[in-house]
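ZP: hey, is the copper (II) ion complex queued? I don't see it on the tracker
AM: it wasn't, my bad. submitting now with these inputs:
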Amino acid sequence: MGLLGKLLNVVTTLNAALPQSKTNGASQLGLVSAPVLPNFMTNNPLPNGYPWGSDTVTNTNPYRNSPNTGVTRYYTFNVSRGVLSPDGYQKQMILVNGAYPGPTIEANWGDTIQVTVQNNIQSPAEGTAIHWHGFLQHNSQWMDGVPAFSQCPIAPGKTFTYSFKAELYGTSWYHAHYSAQYSDGVQGAMVIYGPKNRDYDIDLGPVMLSDLYHVPYLQTVNYTVMGGPPRPPPNITSDNNLINGKMDFNCSTVAPGDKTPCVSNAGMSEFKFTTGKVRKLMS
Ligand SMILES: [Cu+2]
């Protein structure tokens, strides 16, 4: 390939064949225009200059103690079915607020996070529950979001409000804990601002890495648990690997007879780097 060919190749790679609305719905993750994250949220009291006061990385063990900011961050999640093409292959999904990945939850260390989850999964209806990955849930075990262990599933058409403290700081994620529902899209990042372990100039935000299965999640579960056709264990491999819910896919590789709409080179996640700046990327 000559230089012009190589240049054209780069241009085609960066030129996504599908708009963000088709690959990721309402999510802005994976776009260079995605907002960078602050050092911490400032619409709250700042004793000693920080939301968490004089606590530091070294003088506090967050697994035992955490500050109490008295601030509550409110979120509303509408969980419903939707159709997107994260890698160009059209997929029946289950989405939070029409976005894949779902909205990023932000809070300061010591805040309370309150998320009202409306289960609008219909046709067919399904239960759901959201797990807040990595949180300790001291004195709030029933907010852990694991159906049959810490709560009943949220019934179709019903609402449940989770309320728990951001005891730990750092980047984590939330995901549906109802069967393998999260692999159809019910997942997103959680960023809890806290004391810094390292200095950096710009926080480019969460980098979510995930497997993508083109078939609906119940079929994947069926393959796994029942050994059902056509991909019996141990050959249950995902169809793609996504960064922030996006990746290119070669549609000429789909099985013969598969008429699912598919667009090659749908578009990959992009990040903006500036020479001389130190960036934080959390995966
Ligand atoms: Cu988890």
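AM: back. Residues 131, 133, 175 surround copper (II) ion (CB under 6 Å).
ZP: great, adding it to the tracker
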